[in-house]
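Field: COMPLEX_INPUT
Field: COMPONENT_COUNT = two
Field: RESIDUE_TOTAL = 525
Field: MODE = joint
Values follow.
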Amino acid sequence: MTSDEALMLEFQGGSRAAFEELFARYRKPLHGFFGRRLNNPERAEDLVQETFLAVIRAASRYEPRALVRTYLYGIALKLLAAERRKFLTSSTLGQTAPEPKTDGTPDCVLWVRQAMEKLDSPDREILMLREYEQLSYSDIAELLRIPLNTVRSKLFRSRLALKSYLESEAKTNPALRASAGQPHPRRRGLQ
Amino acid sequence: MSTNRHPIEQEELMAYLDGELPMDQATEALLHLELCPECQTLAADFRGVSQELMAWEVESPEIGIPSEINAALGDRLQKREVAKITSPRLENRVLTSRWVWAGALAIVCVAMGLKLLTSRNRNEDRSTAYLSMALIEQYLMPDRNAEIAMARSAAPAAISSDAKILVLGRQGYETAIEGKNGFVCLVERSWMSPFNSAEFWNPKVRGPLCFNPAAARSILPLTIKRTEMVLAGLPKAQMIDRIKAGFDNKELPAPNPGAMCYMMSRAGYLNDAVGHYVPHLMFYFPLTDKSSWGADLPDSPVTLNPQFQGGPEPITEFVIPVGKWSDGTAAPAM
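Field: COMPLEX_OUTPUT
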């Protein structure tokens, strides 16, 4: 299997197939990245497209100093920040961000969302980059421009906070907790 | 949890579970975790949190490349072609420059690959974490003939065509073809990585190699042993203990003099960081210092592979890149 970095270099050299392969590899993960942070599937898909458009526009400037994976999520984080600023500005002018869609969303997902919202925003971002994007501590530190030890300590704090939240929820709603705890065959947990 | 009672902090335990500790600390964490009920509970809690978060999946529509991206892509590629046609001298310069860059990048990539391959600090491993064993089907190759061909591709045909070929089945490695020259070729899987490697469970890994007779007698048993334990579902701590016991009671042999193997396949996939890497030979010795071979010194072509190196197998493994793939074609310059 050709590495992402080799594909990016091939794309720089004019290979459409290399770009298509990168698109196939990262479209879904990027959709998940935006989808979890915006709770708006349509906007998430728009931002996935904007991410790839940014890759196309900046292809000639790409240097393989970082993994393509980290590079892509770096772009995605910038787009996300811009999107949030946009909504912040809109809300000060009387508009509000769309409410997360909950129709048909399983209870266990709603519950995980609620648990995540209880975390401080920077802590939540670190936890999400680790759990969902599966980035290493050093990649997260690089993307968020914070020390590696801070990543570790905040991740630790977030996980303990979630554990505490899980335990309190389990006491009040054991059925929900049980449904959320079902192992998912397509994802990996800690070893 | 006080440090007086626990040799590792809670944060370190979490980092260990995330595959983020260097080998020496990871081994310490692993051994402690095996014995400490309190840490086992904490580890179970962390796993529980991780598992529950996985409930939040985001549905993604199955679509091709959207028209806006296609248009931008076409535009970029077209401009590139136009520039090539209208400015051949410039293009030549760019091309020359690009080749220079490509060469430099290749060197950088190979150097980075070597560093990743040899680094004992797994904090430097930037690849995707594979935190637990995937379904066994993902490690098996459904096409037996493809696996035989991949195994043979590890060495030049003059060697591998008469070698014994093993393929991985659900019960372990089995003989697919009997050999005549004492060499044994097979495709190793991710669990032959160091135990603290972030890619220990990477189901994409395919490591074709051909052991010479000395290595077939003394190194192949390690592959067989680790594979048996993985397929039996043993946790890493137990695997490590059993390997140690195996060496203690001589069930597992020390490397025979002259033990080596060929890894010259262009079809292999050694890990996410280095892909198929470069063709190379590997030489096995009882645990020794890398300075005895001048490994990892500036401009030395010899590298220490941390695959074993006392973790727990008491074996040192040196890697030397070679210039050609097994099919005789030139490999990337080192």
